[in-house]
Task: inverse folding
């Protein structure tokens, strides 16, 4: 997976668990990324798959 901002593969992925959201009642969990090259952050779904750079 590559950074959507700079297309670097120096990406760290971390899981998060914020518990239950008071407003929605839904469990707030997922995965986020941080690019070590440019500092971009976001949801793992935003990462660019190998071979899909355009």
Result:
């Amino acid at each position: 997976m590559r950074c959507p901002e700079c297309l670097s593969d120096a990406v760290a992925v971390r899981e998060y668990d914020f518990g239950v959201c008071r407003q929605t009642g839904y469990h707030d969990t997922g995965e986020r990324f941080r690019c070590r090259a440019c500092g971009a952050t976001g949801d793992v779904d935003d990462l660019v798959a190998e071979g899909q750079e355009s």
